[in-house]
Amino acid sequence: MSHLAEKHxxxxxxxxxxxxxxxxxxxxxxxAHTIKDAWRTGKVTVALFLDVQGAxxxxxxxxxxxxxxxxxxxxxxxxxxxxxxTNRKTRLHFDDYISExxxxxxxxxxxxPLSMLLYTFYNAPLIKCTASKNxxxxxxxxDSSYLITARSLHEAHExxxxxxxxxxxGFDWSTTHNSPYELNKLALMNFPCSNHDNxxxxxxxxxxxxxxxxxxxxxxxxxxxxxxxxx
Length: 231
Prior knowledge:
Blueprint: H1 2-7, H2 24-40, E1 44-51, H3 61-70, H4 75-84, E2 88-90, E3 93-94, E4 97-98, E5 102-104, H5 113-122, H6 124-128, E6 135-140, E7 143-150, H7 153-165, H8 170-176, E8 187-191, E9 221-223
Antiparallel strand pairs: 1-7, 1-8, 2-5, 3-4, 6-7, 8-9
């Protein structure tokens, strides 16, 4: 499947986890390249880093199969994965106690080499949200990021907010795919072109992204998301 996905471009270029030849260092190079390209044209970049709780444990088989069909994976592989994730059971065994078989409805097998590749199809809709000019994304299993290039930090923040809150956006994917975000691990980072690119002032209005400047240095102007509720 990984060979077919690579050969026929079945996944977005920003998918790095579980794909041969796509390393963490490649994702970092892509991030640096995007930022420097923006700087060369006098623009700024803002990155939103997302982390999903229990990625493999919360995977819903029906959504995975649907996404694989959407990505045009051959039916023989889809049937194989569907059979692997159907009619599974487990037992609890400790001391002298062994439970009755417990059906497993969700999750892929953590530790299985296939799990990382399968998750690239599972979060494919999340990565595809940025399929437009000046918007890109990076996916590495349960860690994803949105990269927005704009003329100002304010414009970039508004675009990030729209990506998360619009229909079929980041929050919709989280809800429909049983994949809540670890809000304490979410981070929004500004990459300004100059010292004159100041982040927008903090706002307490519902749904807004609250900004907290940590350092005046370039590449260290970090922000936190305080007002988004759990989905």
